[in-house]
Fold this protein.
Amino acid sequence: MTEVVTAQAGVLRELRTLIAAGKLGPGQQVVQDSLAASLGVSRVPLREALKVLEGEGQVIYHPHRGYFVADLSVTDLVEVYRIRSLLEDEALRVGVPLLTDEDLEYLEGLIQDVEVAAKSADVTAVTSANRRFHFALFESSNMPRLVRLIRNQWDATDAYRGVYFAAASNLDQMNREHRAMLAALRARDVEKSIALQAAHRENSVSVVSELISKPS
Amino acid sequence: MTEVVTAQAGVLRELRTLIAAGKLGPGQQVVQDSLAASLGVSRVPLREALKVLEGEGQVIYHPHRGYFVADLSVTDLVEVYRIRSLLEDEALRVGVPLLTDEDLEYLEGLIQDVEVAAKSADVTAVTSANRRFHFALFESSNMPRLVRLIRNQWDATDAYRGVYFAAASNLDQMNREHRAMLAALRARDVEKSIALQAAHRENSVSVVSELISKPS
DNA sequence: ATGAACGAGATTGGATACAATCAATCCATG
DNA sequence: CATGGATTGATTGTATCCAATCTCGTTCAT
């Protein structure tokens, strides 16, 4: 489906889902040899993918001992969302006043993409469309490093987020929130849009925290 | 001097200084083969170090084309410091009220370490002691992910910071600021300590921005 | 019983070799 | 002369192999 140009990129995606699905449980060592074999690649691309995850705090590296899955407790999750709010608020604070009319049209198009995906109940499509919308918005800040950090934080919990989109009621609410956000953006109402973004986050944090608190 | 347990860790340090010194100039491709040879290692540890730098935004990766040194313009620098202020303010806001008397004693000891290093005019020692002080403070927040992000931001400009510490007048000012900070911490005065930390940042941003704006 | 020294097995770290891809040049063609 | 397509050299991506290190159980001395 989605093209993967390198093995490391493919492995990275696999690892994220393995961790989110609990196949690689918290605290567990990532044994490179067996995992690489089961993924059908050598250890080299696996190690490079692990370095990325280390940078995101998803795994912890001990030299000569290996990589261990970080445990994402509810405390951690709260911290991730707190960090997200610091960063996302700034992105909106800077970006919203800079939005052009063309930007707004483009953003509306992205919201429609999400709605279309939601109708077809394609969780993957919803996830990626939703992501495109929010990041298009963040990027209006013209702060690429800030956006990169926000992306890191999303990645740290992204794999869990699919669960949120699985329920139709959540999808409806999301679409309503997107529309409300668009209205606030059209009005260039910075504080309103920040508040809406915050509400949006809060919805998913509760779902995800339930998910990780009960051992699957 | 400092022990390096793996080649990748050593290469990572080398790379940071190479970038900071401009030996690896902005936009320039990092040719793995020749660089690895000149560092006396194979490409494997080099690539892993590059992945770390990619995560920090120090280099940009294009699949099948390679790693390119990100250019750190003054605009970028301003962005880095803006991000730092978002994150560091939070760390202090959460951490300062939690400081115990033992923490304060420990922090004072770290400040003394900086002063000792400053007297002996050992730039490297000043840099690392200064870093230890600030991060000990940040860690009082008990937000490890937040601290990790702050550390990333420091790393993104750390190599440049040595210049700041080279001038004795800057050292004096730094020590005065540290003492002022300690007083604010003893009073558990959150806003004051945030303001002092901000001033501390501003001092170095101007020095570093001059450094990178004029081609060496 | 306790703990230090040792060794076997497992695992990671790094070097080398080869495959895949890209970029730039050259040549053919219109 | 411009354009498009093959070709070659350079560079990256990955697999495989060997070296270095750690873990853990065993042994031995105290």
